[in-house]
Amino acid sequence: MLVYLIGAGPGDPGLLTLKGKAVLETADVVVYDYLANQSFLNFCRKDAEIIYVGKKGGDHTLPQDQINQLLVTKAKEGKVIARLKGGDPYVFGRGAEEAQELLAAGVNFEVVPGVTSGVAGLAYAGIPVTHRSYASSVSFITGHEDPTKTTTALHWDALAKSASTLVFFMGMKNLPDIASNLMAAGMSGSTPAALVHWGATCRHRSCVGTLETLPRLAKEQKFTSPSLIVVGEVCKLHDELNFFEKRPLLGKGIVVTRAREQASDLASLLEAQGACVHQFPTIAVTPLTDFTVLDAALDELGSYDWLVFTSINGVEHFWNRLLATGRDARALAGCKVAAIGPATAQGLKDRGIVADFLPERFVAEYVAEGMLASGAAGKKILVPRAKEARELLPDELRKAGCHVDVVPVYETVRADSDAAALLEVLQAGGVQCVTFASSSTVDNFFALVPADEFRRLAPDAKLACIGPVTANTLKKYGFGVDIQPEDYTIPALVQAVVDYCAH
């Protein structure tokens, strides 16, 4: 039995340590806090028990003593526990208290330190905690002491005279008192000061003023918890070194409707531009339950002149069955291979196959046109694809005298996504854009979220489609397309969203 106290960092998933990720991937139970980015849960084992014990604005899902007991109970069941805490467990995270309780109960523990928001959140806001010209030391201070204490442990005189960068955690409710106590202790009201809200996350924002003006700015700009209060000359560097707030999609809520298996690339590209991504998979990709037709086609693979892949899913599931039947890439010898787009071509390349044909435009119409121009007319062609898909490509090839066999290698079904959760985000105004990467994502989205309800809750939300086929499907529901790239690829879709939001 073992409990790992893991620091998740300030919120940017890239700031989780390698050891923290390794523990999450193997733990039997994961107990996590409100401030930990929930995307970290994607690292967990599919069969892991996930328990939320977060605290928000005094609303505790579990009081601290019950959290301690939960950790002890689960550990004594012989399980490995990952206790995931925002920031660093030992920087105002009560990690040491939990460690003491574990020791008292005879439970072993290890600490996996995390990047504290007191460093990372400020860095993302362009505020270094130390600088040779401004501050040679830094003090991390709680702005919310234990309410049971009868006297404060803070020495305001020492803090005011220290010349350190002062970083107050959990102090927003007490910001006016913090400012007045420092000024009463002799610190100048003109000392630079700043607020950093949800530092290093997509909800990050900051403001800079002085010790005297900061309480007013906080009220005017509606800063709430969780926000760090920073006091010191290093705040002067905010405008010069602030890189994170220049990201074009910072704070924009964007819904990704792709299947969860394919959503990571789109979500990662959007998050790299600062977006708050809401994963709402509307389709799920599932293997076939009956391989009779596919296996028959594999037995005759040598008779085909062309093999045409219309998606990365088609490549993956075709290849899985190829290997499962005792074959490998050699089975494609003598057969030309076409890919509908660069992602599909890369999937083939990863398996040692370089596509013989890749169209200039990544839709079925251009695949048929280009293949015919490459001498495919009259040839025997195999198209491994989804069980349900458009017939345009095989129909166009057949018109040119091709013998075309369409073979399902996987199927798509409507995903069981939490529509109520998305409706709540829409109601709160948290969605500025919805992305659609296929016609099926459109159909399934509006099956889960009725079109009239979407119009009512998100009248200003922009709709982004990967290409004209998807756009035409969207029009069936009475919506116009706001954003569409010239190249029908995921990177181009993200760039189109960025370009639109930049104007």
Automatic annotation (TrEMBL):
Its keywords, alphabetically, are:
Cobalamin biosynthesis, Methyltransferase, Porphyrin biosynthesis, S-adenosyl-L-methionine, Transferase
Give start and end of each Tetrapyrrole methylase domain: 3-214
What the entry lists under CDD domains is as follows: HemD, SUMT
User: Can you tell which superkingdom this protein's organism belongs to?
Assistant: Bacteria
Q: Which InterPro entries match?
A: 4pyrrol_Mease (IPR000878), 4pyrrol_Methylase_sf (IPR035996), 4pyrrol_syn_uPrphyn_synt_sf (IPR036108), 4pyrrol_synth_uPrphyn_synth (IPR003754), 4pyrrole_Mease_sub1 (IPR014777), 4pyrrole_Mease_sub2 (IPR014776), CobA/CysG_C (IPR006366), Siro_Cobalamin_biosynth (IPR050161)
Sequence intervals crossing the membrane? none
Q: What class of enzyme is it?
A: transferase
Q: Which residue range or ranges hold the Tetrapyrrole biosynthesis uroporphyrinogen III synthase domain?
A: 265-495
Q: In which pathway does it act?
A: Cofactor biosynthesis; adenosylcobalamin biosynthesis; precorrin-2 from uroporphyrinogen III: step 1/1; Porphyrin-containing compound metabolism; siroheme biosynthesis; precorrin-2 from uroporphyrinogen III: step 1/1
Q: Which GO terms describe its biological process?
A: cobalamin biosynthetic process; methylation; siroheme biosynthetic process
The molecular function terms of the Gene Ontology recorded here are: uroporphyrin-III C-methyltransferase activity; uroporphyrinogen-III synthase activity
The EC number(s) this enzyme carries:
2.1.1.107
**What NCBIfam families would the database entry show?**
cobA_cysG_Cterm, PRK06136.1
The cross-references to PANTHER family, in alphabetical order and at most eight, read: S-ADENOSYL-L-METHIONINE-DEPENDENT UROPORPHYRINOGEN III METHYLTRANSFERASE, CHLOROPLASTIC (PTHR45790:SF3), SIROHEME SYNTHASE-RELATED (PTHR45790)
Q: Which family does it belong to?
A: Belongs to the precorrin methyltransferase family.
Protein name, please?
uroporphyrinogen-III C-methyltransferase
This protein's species is Megalodesulfovibrio gigas (strain ATCC 19364 / DSM 1382 / NCIMB 9332 / VKM B-1759) (Desulfovibrio gigas)
Lineage at the top is:
Bacteria, Pseudomonadati, Thermodesulfobacteriota, Desulfovibrionia, Desulfovibrionales
